[in-house]
Task: structure prediction
Amino acid sequence: MAANPLVEMVNITRNFGGVHALKGVDLSVFAGEVVALLGHNGAGKSVLAQILSGVYPPTSGEIKVDGSPVHFHSPNDARRHGIETIYQT
Result:
């Protein structure tokens, strides 16, 4: 496994008004890994995926791709970095 993650989310928080959807979430994805997000309904899995894919910005925290901080303002921004959500049908 590579020493540095390809994608890293550090201390991600996302609020929707007074609702705290995510609080202090960390995620590291290394080359060659297959990652699954598991949890109960309302745990924040979809919100985390939507932040990573540029649908929502994090309220706070940092996203890094290849060790460099990135700020996705749209799904197209994330796609340019090779990140895209594929929804099941």
